[in-house]
Amino acid sequence: MAIYGKQTDQKWQKIWEDSGVFKFREDKDKEKLYVLEMFSYPSGSKLHAGHWFNYGPTDSWARMKKMQGYNVFQPMGFDAFGLPAENFAIKTGIHPMDSTLKNIETMEVQLKAMGAMFNWDHEVVTCAPDYYKWTQWLFVQLYKNGLAYRKNAPVNWCPSCNTVLANEQVLDGACERCGTPVIKKDLTQWFFSITKYADELLEDLEGLDWPEKTKSMQRHWIGRSYGSSVKFKVDQKDLEFEVFTTRVDTLYGASYVVFAPENAMVPTLTTEAQRAEVEAYIEQAKMQSDIDRQSLSREKTGVFTGSYAVNPINGRIIPIWVGDYVLNTYGTGIVMAVPAHDERDFEFAKKYDLPIERVIEGGESLPYTEIGKMMNSGEFDGLMGEEAKEKVTLWLEERNSGSLKVNYRLRDWLVSRQRYWGAPIPIVYCNHCGEVVVEEKDLPVTLPYDVEFAPDGKSPLAKSEEFLNTTCPKCGGHATREADTLDTFVCSSWYYLRYVDNKNEEEAFDKEKINKMLPVDKYVGGPEHAVMHLLYARFVTKALRDMGFLSFDEPFKSLTHQGLILGPDGQKMSKSKGNTISPDEYINQYGSDVFRMYLMFGFSYAEGGAWSDEGIRSVARFVDRVERNFHNIKDILQSSSNTDELRTEDKDLLYWNANTIKGVSEDAEKMQFNTAIARMMELTNALTKYIPLKAHNHKVLEKVNADFIRLLAPFAPHFGEEIWHLFGNEGSVFDEAWPGYDEKALVKDEVEIAIQINGKIKERIMIPSSATDVEIQELALADATIRKETEGKNIVKVIVIKGRLVNIVVKG
Ligand code: ANZ
Ligand code: ZN
Asked: Per the Swiss-Prot or TrEMBL record, what residue ranges does the short sequence motif 'KMSKS' region cover (predicted)?
């Protein structure tokens, strides 16, 4: 007579909602704990196994924390702007607002069916005007503080989505969303000055409890590199340029320089004889992605400009080339080429027959790219490494030809999108006043509903007269609105702040409130957000801090990435492969707790793995077994089979109970849910052994039972609550304290040992775990079975292996 099932879920979800047990209330006596799961994109494909794997186990963790006495805040919302809804509108004519709100409705129902203790009162939906008003406010603050600006820039352009993509959205040279090869295009774009925070973003990683891999990806993305800047004069022309190098000790070997094709100086440097060839080269380079251009395996190409430069250290006249392996967005977009000591330069020099001269000792063949003593370098010969770099840079500095330089890979954050479904950028252009930011009192700049979706590559906003025409906030004259919208990463860069104070109509958030509630104590989400979202959120927090809106340095103190649940075939789930798992079906069949517990027990949380139907069935059987035990225990406790004696069996059960509490507490703390549940299985086994005994110590059983229910509840919340009430308890089990244990109970005071005679096991006995070898020998020989077996025989030797066995060697 199974009691747990889908109906149990529904019963408790209703009771929880009606009683408001999980409502967040300020509580001075409890420490706050902000548990955050990455909010979801309201796509049409409903809540999938990936959402579940993020939210289910994290909710279990949060429930445990609540029982441990924390005042848990666990909000949920929707990252609701973005391309997919707009592309869907272009295809089907269904307005993004309509499809998005409908999807949110469906997902809310599904999220509620999960039975997580989300604080729905604090929900945020980024496409709602009362949210994006404040996203625009954030833009205005950044703008007023010189952290948002517009510039003409070559951007990654997807010709199919007709939009600009951030570098991070270009994968292997193709659009992350549609796979179309990305091209370069010059456009006026809005940027946030994240590079101003490069050092702090890098250095503060140290103090974060984040996965090492994620920190290292951020470090790489920021890419701080120490080197030198070297000035070269152009031969016969009144021009000069700078290069960034990390190997200034190789300067004597610089036998040519290479400019990125897009570098603004290239047309000036190109001679008439070379112009046609250079222009053709620049045209083809536009078609290449930065990723391809940096690829080591790709053949290096280039063209000679016809001009020459002067190497400042030895006066040598060296040719100036253009080559697409040099990126215009890194350093100065120009490199001094040292083919003897750099792979790419070597390959290029070989191909175009340029001079290769060794200036660093070491290695047999070229290129030799390691550190070594300088040679063929005049007065610097024999110097090496950092000292060599310092001396050469000093020499250059004295002649005003160079200096030390720190370079970053990080670029400013490109935030404008030529799309409709996003927060409008609050800027107007006036004929008199130029670029004017919208006043805070005039926010939000509302996204118009009535627009035309056509697959013509133009943003609906750019075609909407009603939206575009406005008045200038400064002079009152006619002005035109910016038609670009903000990257959705802007919306998600601050949502964790708004959750705390989501109904505030006066401000984005109350400073005092968020200083109390933040930073987020535990953030859980997919590793695909290791760089962009997490870096942008860190930047926004730091910028808001510097503007005085909050006073903490980092938004997310501790971070965990859950792994990926794959299809039964071990492949990433996808509709086209037909290997997706639909949580709803399993929940209908087994109940959401079984589904959640399987996700926690069947996989390592950080790694994930392939779905298995047998796996979820075995968890369902476990829940059945636990449930039978509970019914049996209830019968026992109501019967009169009580004994007050503390027998070996009772002590054993108490031992397993303490051991389980310790194990579950420690493992679940680290989000190692699979081993935590394995511990509970051990305690279940111990109970299954205890239940059939003829007599039971009611006090012991009652205690172990109450502890077990409380341990189990966070992992199987509906089932746990049901059982808690089965035993006549009142109130929610989640208002109970998490069980503790006595260290002493972890030491078994009796252990079982085997007694062998001539190597064959004859008996097992319990002995005090503190017994000495002599005492163990005495106990073994005194045992009735052994006495009978050894009667009349000659005991030659007794071997005691502590804690395990006694072997008695007999003769005759
Ligand atoms: C001369 C040299 C000699 C270099 C040598 C390396 C080895 P990181 O560490 O990533 O900062 N470089 C500079 N700007 C570049 C650009 N825009 N596109 C492509 N390559 C560029 O790398 C710095 C090194 O990358 C610089 O040091 C430069 O080559 C190259 F034996 O200068 B080196
Ligand atoms: Zn004006």
From this structure: 572-576
In this prediction the pTM is: 0.88
Average pLDDT over residues 615-638: 96
397 is written with which tokens?
């500095």
Any atom of ligand 1 within 6 Å of the Cβ of 51: no
**Which contacts qualify for 238-242: CB closer than 8 Å, 24 or more apart?**
239/265, 239/268, 239/269, 241/265, 241/309, 241/332, 241/334, 242/332, 242/334
Give residue 768's pLDDT band: very low, low, confident or very high (50, 70, 90).
confident
Ligand of minimum distance to the alpha carbon of 327:
1
Give the Å distance between the CA of 607 and the centre of ligand 2: 56
- CATH class for the domain made up of 613-746: mainly alpha
Q: Which ligand is nearest to the CA of 226?
A: 1
Which ligand 1 atom is nearest residue 248's CA?
A: 1
Whether CATH 3.10.20.590 fits 750-811? yes
What was the ipTM of the complex prediction? 0.96
**Ion ligand 2: residue ranges with CB closer than 5 A:** 430, 432-433, 472, 474-475, 477
Residue 373, beta-bridge partner list: 384
Asked if the domains 225-407 and 750-811 are classified in one and the same CATH topology, the answer is no
Categorize the per-residue pLDDT at 76 as very low, low, confident or very high, splitting at 50, 70 and 90.
very high
Mutate to test the pocket of ligand 1, among 224, 231, 242, 247 (most ligand atoms within 8 A of CB): 247
Distance CA 332, CA 264 (A): 11
Architecture of domain 225-407: Alpha-Beta Complex (3.90)
Q: How far apart are CA 190 and CA 418, in angstroms?
A: 11
**496-511, pLDDT tens digit by residue?**
999 999 999 999 999 9
